[in-house]
Write a structure and sequence with these properties.
The complex is a heterodimer. Chain A is 81% helix and 0% strand. By secondary structure, chain A is mainly α. Chain B has two domains: 111 residues, no CATH class; 126 residues, no CATH class. Chain B has a two-stranded antiparallel sheet with strand order 1-2. In chain B, helix 3 packs across helix 5 and helix 9 packs parallel to helix 10. At the A-B interface, helix 1, helix 2, helix 3, helix 9 and helix 13 of A face strand 2, helix 3, strand 3, helix 5 and helix 6 of B.
């Protein structure tokens, strides 16, 4: 077919397709007839694009057809995931399913965290200079005087301020450990080991001054859930890293995408809890008026609530559906 | 050989041999090229977005400081901390979800996010590709340079690509000089498309060379066109060129 003839005979179709596409883009819900016509024209444009690309490459017609074919593909193909029943459905089905899927990874990061905690604790007990190096001489001097640095949370910083700072900081740590997993798991391992080591070292540094009990009391209300959430996000990160590194019988790109989606669901399920934790850490943990048993009970209840959601009755059913 | 003089003899470039395009198969197995955005345009687009982010952060700071008096220092700190956090983690995700994959930087550079099949990415994919942005600030550029599809970490996780959105300023010829093939047509149409960007003297010189080629290969085509005047306009009339 002659180029000029090709243009003359096909250009009205391209114009019509472009107009229909513009109209469809402007509407919220295009009619069935309009969509059907658009799909038909899209097919014609695709065929013309194939012809132009092979017989008249790089010409104006070929370039326009390439643009139209791409625009049409972009608009007509929308990879929407199946509806998951909103927020309630997410926490009832999707979140428990991915939580169960990542339980082996959670066991690994928990083991690493505890190992690093024990290392930090024993190192600081044996070598107190490690505690000085980590906390700084000023805070160690405060410990010598019998004061924990956490007292500043009640004396110098208003609870509302510390709540916002703590909540955003915890979310940043969770996002970092999660995203760090994409670096072959190295970022996640760094965050898990560092946090475990720091917690152990800080605990070890307070022991010679008899303030370890006070420190444990301080973290009793928020610590169990906070550490659990960080570890859950780390488990998701580790799973990401494993998908990037480990070979399987499926294409790596496919495995990485699937694990990425699941790991992201796990992260999304954890983030709201950090807001609750920020409130507890800002208002309850540093409050001397709240009795220690209440703090312990609150910490245990929060962790139990989280686990109830993550391992709730819907978990097994949703896991089956997921599989 | 007709019009061979207008085709500058040059050795094939790397991009001629290995186009940086992802070919996907659309309906009826028709191959469709995705014009992949390379690292350079991605970096410029990201730079523009971060500029916007800085401006937004400054605006937020000024707004909070102006609206709240200094007696409410605690409230100021809370609003600033939460605002910065939301901007840092939310700007890209919210803008891309709202626009279907075009942040301000991408819009300026004519880029958009698509799925591997060229379709519209789902919201989850847009959120996911932006959740690892902090890590991509470290490794994103090397990854884009090494990957033939210029994907950063976020793109790999979300299964997305960033492509160029073509402008609609094509010129087509309704009269084709005898013996001219697709390459000659492409040169002529490409010239007409680029005329507004060329220096007038240079464009007129090139138009005269093209007219000379047409006169040699198909003199009948120039009969209707005026002999004098702007050579670019004469060329357009000779081949009945129009904007597509």
């Amino acid at each position: 077919m002659h180029y000029a003839h090709f243009l003359r005979s096909r250009k009205p179709i391209w114009d019509e397709f472009e107009e229909s596409l513009e109209r469809a883009r402007g509407r919220q819900n295009p009619s069935h007839e309009a969509l059907e016509k658009l799909a038909f024209r899209y097919r014609q444009v695709l065929h013309d694009h194939a012809l132009a690309a092979s017989r008249y490459p790089e010409t104006g017609a070929a370039r326009r057809l390439e643009r139209l074919a791409l625009d049409g593909t972009h608009w007509l193909q929308w990879d929407r995931p199946p509806r998951g029943g909103g927020l309630g459905g997410f926490f009832r089905h999707r979140f428990p399913a991915v939580f169960r899927r990542f339980l082996p990874h959670l066991a690994v990061v928990a083991f690493l965290f505890l190992g690093a905690l024990f290392l930090g604790l024993s190192l600081t007990v044996v070598q107190p200079q490690v505690g000085v190096a980590l906390l700084g001489p000023d805070k160690v001097e405060d410990l010598r005087r019998g004061h924990l640095w956490t007292e500043a949370l009640t004396t110098t910083i208003p609870p509302a301020v510390s709540t916002s700072v703590i909540a955003t900081n915890n979310m940043s740590v969770a996002l970092t450990t999660w995203a760090g997993g994409a670096l072959a798991g190295l970022g996640t391992l760094y965050v898990v080991l560092l946090n475990g080591f720091l917690l152990g070292a800080v605990l070890g540094a307070t022991m010679p001054y008899g303030l370890d009990g006070e420190l444990l009391t301080f973290i009793a209300a928020h610590g169990p859930l906070e550490i659990s959430l960080i570890l859950v996000c780390s488990a998701a990160g580790l799973a990401l890293g494993r998908a990037v590194v480990a070979a399987s019988d499926r294409p790596r790109a496919e495995v990485v995408q699937e694990t990425g989606r699941d790991a992201f669901a796990l992260l999304l399920g954890c983030l709201p809890w950090f807001v609750v934790l920020g409130l507890v850490e800002g208002f309850v943990s540093p409050a001397p008026t709240v009795p220690v048993p209440v703090k312990i009970a609150l910490g245990a209840s929060l962790l139990a609530l989280f686990l109830a959601v993550a391992l709730g009755p819907g978990a097994r059913r949703s896991e089956d559906a997921y599989e | 050989m007709p019009s061979s003089k207008i085709m500058a003899a040059r050795p094939p470039r790397k991009e001629d041999v290995e186009p940086s395009h992802e070919i996907l198969f659309a309906l009826d197995n028709i191959p469709l090229d995705l014009p992949i955005a390379r690292a350079a345009s991605r970096v410029v687009s990201g730079f523009l977005d971060y500029l916007i982010l800085i401006v937004l952060a400054l605006l937020w700071t000024v707004t909070v400081l102006l609206l709240l008096d200094w007696s409410g220092t605690a409230r100021i700190i809370i609003l600033l901390v939460v605002g910065y956090f939301l901007l840092e983690y939310g700007y890209f995700a919210v803008v891309e979800v709202a626009t279907g994959g075009r942040s301000f930087g991408k819009w300026t550079m004519g880029l958009t996010v698509v799925t591997r099949r060229g379709g519209r990415p789902p919201t989850t994919a847009l959120l996911l590709r932006n959740a690892v942005r902090s890590v991509d600030l470290l490794v994103g550029i090397p990854l884009m340079l090494l990957d033939p599809l210029a994907r950063r970490l976020g793109d790999r996780l979300a299964g997305t690509l960033v492509v160029h959105v073509r402008r609609s300023d094509e010129w087509v010829l309704h009269r084709v000089p005898r013996g001219w093939g697709a390459r000659e047509l492409a040169v002529l149409e490409s010239f007409l498309r680029r005329v507004p960007d060329l220096e007038p003297e240079r464009s007129q010189r090139m138009a005269q060379r093209l007219l000379a080629c047409i006169e040699r290969d198909d003199p009948d085509l120039l009969r209707g066109a005026p002999a004098a005047g702007d050579p670019v306009e004469r060329l357009r009339q000779a081949v009945s060129a129009e904007k597509l």
